[in-house]
Specification:
Blueprint lengths: L7 E8 L15 H8 L2 E7 L5 H10 L18 H7 L3 E6 L16 E3 L10 H13 L6 H12 L7 H18 L3 E10 L7 H7 L6 H14 L14 H31 L6 E7 L4 E2 L5 E2 L6 H4 E2 L1 E4 L11 E7 L3 H8 L27 E5 L15 E5 L3 E6 L4 E6 L14 H16 L13 H9 L4
Parallel strand pairs: 1-5, 1-6, 2-11, 3-4, 3-5
Antiparallel strand pairs: 2-9, 2-10, 6-10, 7-8, 12-13, 13-14, 14-15
Helix pairs in contact: 4-5, 6-9, 7-9
The structure holds zinc ion.
Length: 472
């Protein structure tokens, strides 16, 4: 494929956007996004490298399985996509709304410009200021009247992340001056929505929720879940909410998703207006999915269910009669494949240490580029750390089968995978198939070398934000 007319590549990721809830919008609400998806190749079996943000982004941004170079963000041993591209004179911009894929965990490595909620460049953002104020007030004595202000700010008006409208504003500010000057520009844009807690504008709440909940009451339910949830998959977790409360939470998830898509629409419409859309390749994905109580949990806890690891991926190349692409690619792909795809789109060589394969050929032919995709984690809660063998959960996902080794439960699973939900464990019924996939799993375990994570400093403000995002 001749990719010489591609000047820019945008990698757009949405946090916790599950496959079957993606892009709930009508063509009239978001005509540009709608057209973009119609012109894209859809990868129908795309698998994340993990079930949460911290296990997905080593795959997306450095083509590495999460346990490869220490289990905490990017280390000096990684070869991040931005570093690779900068070395090849591609101008690189990163904008992320999520703390767990921010500069705190070295995800800014290699970017020429980077914006997040923890770096010094974010000091003039509204959420950062709100958080600073809240933290100052929080440190004052309990009886102080300012404490009440803290509670007000903290609980009702202060999302623990940068919201979608600001992400789009920042992207427009950083990207558009550069896109005109540089021959080649890469931008990674990470929207926090639809991740909880939920702060969508009222118009989306009205559109998606018929009940009586508002932002305050729905986020109280989210806080209650974070406080009261029991062990992963425990049936007692289903007693925390009534069926009505569960369905209200999903309404707000959809409202939050619609907000992010509308902000993405604003970005795409701006690109079109500037004339740059025709020179830009766009990759759209989510880091991982979200469980909506199908397996006795909400959110993305440590488990390798389809709702978490099977994620959406679209790739849309610039309009060009020489670039004739498939509507849909129906073989297994992995987040590991994104960085090699991006380097090939820019005409650069991939890094030798990357574990994925470019998907550029998959845009034209339906031939498999891999037979299975590995997803892995090694933690019970939080954001990773040292690799603990007793906490390993590894999944090997083929086109129609999935094998999972769960050391936390000391159990193995085999699933026939189809329409998104895991049903019955059929490991006793198909021992030959289990053995075949288990072989790849054992091979992977034998390759995990570095078990100690690099240490990082997390201040109390960041810790508080992570707690509100559900990291205990
Ligand atoms: Zn995430």
């Amino acid at each position: 494929m001749n990719t010489s007319q591609i000047s820019n590549v945008l990698l757009v990721s949405f946090d916790a956007f599950r496959l079957d809830r993606t892009f709930h919008f009508t063509e009239s609400d978001c005509p540009h996004v709608s057209e973009l998806l119609n012109d894209s190749t859809y990868f129908s079996k795309h698998i994340s490298t993990g079930s949460g943000t911290s296990t997905s982004f080593p795959g997306i941004l450095a083509s590495s399985l999460p346990l490869e170079y220490g289990y905490r963000g990017l280390s000096e041993d990684h070869c991040p996509i931005a570093e690779r591209l900068s070395r090849n004179n591609v101008y690189t911009i990163g904008i992320t709304a999520q703390t767990s894929c921010s500069s705190l965990f070295n995800y800014d490595t290699g970017f020429d410009r980077f914006f997040d909620s923890v770096g010094s460049n974010s000091s003039n953002t509204k959420s950062f200021i709100k958080e600073k104020v809240a933290n100052i007030v929080r440190d004052t004595p309990v009886e102080s009247p300012t404490k009440a202000i803290y509670d007000l700010i903290k609980n009702h008006d202060n999302p623990p992340y940068i919201q979608a409208d600001e992400v789009t504003d920042r992207t427009i500010d950083l990207l558009f001056p550069k896109i005109k000057q540089s021959n080649q520009t890469f931008a990674w844009i990470h929207y926090m929505e639809p991740h909880a807690p939920y702060y969508p504008p009222t118009k989306f709440i009205k559109q998606y929720h018929n009940g009586n909940h508002d932002l305050s009451s729905i986020n109280k339910l989210i806080n209650r879940w974070n406080r009261e949830r029991g062990p992963v998959g425990s049936p007692k977790n289903m007693d925390i909410f009534t069926p009505d409360e569960r369905s209200s939470i999903i309404d707000f998830y959809d409202a939050q998703a619609a907000f992010a898509v509308e902000e993405f629409e604003r970005l795409i419409s701006k690109l079109k207006e500037s004339g740059e859309l025709k020179r830009t390749a766009i990759i759209i994905t989510s880091d991982h999915g979200e469980e909506h109580f199908e397996h006795n949990d909400f959110g993305h806890r440590p488990k390798m269910i389809e709702e978490l690891i099977h994620v959406p991926l679209w790739i849309r190349l610039p309009e060009n009669p020489d670039l004739d692409t498939l509507c849909s690619f129906d073989n297994i792909t992995s987040h590991l494949d994104l960085s090699p795809t991006i380097t090939e789109l820019f005409g650069c060589e991939p890094s030798d240490q990357w574990q994925g394969n470019s998907l550029v050929s998959a845009l034209e032919t339906n031939d498999p580029t891999r037979n299975y995709a590995v997803s892995e984690l090694s933690h019970k809660s939080g954001l990773g750390g040292d690799v603990r063998p007793e906490e390993l959960i590894i999944s090997v996902r083929g086109k129609t089968w999935k094998y999972v080794l769960n050391k936390q439960e000391n159990r193995e699973y085999l699933y026939q995978v189809g329409e998104g939900i895991d049903h019955e464990n059929v490991i006793d019924k198909y021992p030959g198939k289990a053995k075949e996939l288990k072989h790849f799993c054992e091979q992977r375990i034998s390759n995990i070398n570095k078990v100690e994570a690099d240490s990082i400093d997390i201040d109390s403000g960041v810790e508080d934000r992570l707690r509100r995002l559900g990291y205990k």
